[in-house]
Amino acid sequence: MKDSFLAETIFRYSLFIVIVIFPWGCHYSEKEKFPSGELYGKIIYDTYIINRDSTDTWGDECLSKFKRAALIDKIFDDVFAGKITPYDYFTGEKIAIKQIKRMESEGEFSRKNISKIQFEERWIWDNDKIALQKQVISMTIAYEVYDNAGRSRGQKPIFKLVFSK
Question: What digits encode the pLDDT tens for the residues 90-110?
Answer without folding.
Answer: 999 999 999 999 999 999 999
